[in-house]
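Justification of computing resources. Each target in the renewal requires a structure prediction run like the one illustrated here; the chain below, 178 residues long, is used simply to show the kind of job we budget for.
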Amino acid sequence: MTNVRPARPDDLPALLSLYAQLGGDDVPFAPGAAEAALAALLAFPGATLLVAEHDGSVAGTVTVIVVPNLTHGAQPWAQLENMVVDATVRSAGVGHALMAEALRTAREAGCYKSSSRAVTNARTLTVSMRAKVHRRLRGLPSLLMGDIAPDGAARARHHRGSQPAGAGGEVPWQRLRR
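Resulting structure tokens:
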């Protein structure tokens, strides 16, 4: 069973282990730097660091940043970052649970859209497809974005550079499973 909750300071070792699975960041921490960065992130206004516990252990994480906005009627938007699921529990619904909670967090904050950084592999894209937030795309997208409707539904768009992909680049509104 998977439970998604806000991260706590004592989650730091598990978070660092998960982030190591992302790869590409082998810069060592100065003593105390990771602890200070986590404390700052947990205190940062508009930031929510979520962790997914699967069978009692932290098995995934995603960061949700709500950004104030002067367009779209001053509705904020959300950036989803650093999502990773432990390799030993992939395909067990952990990514789906994280994505659903991240988008619920964005909806509750009044966000009109959410966006996430580049998908780095097909397995990561599968998480998005299972959450019914994003559709199957040919190739690896440079940016996935999802709009959040006032009724809580989500629609995804794929952008490669400035050109939408596919038929109009949009997916019809889809409800998230709760």
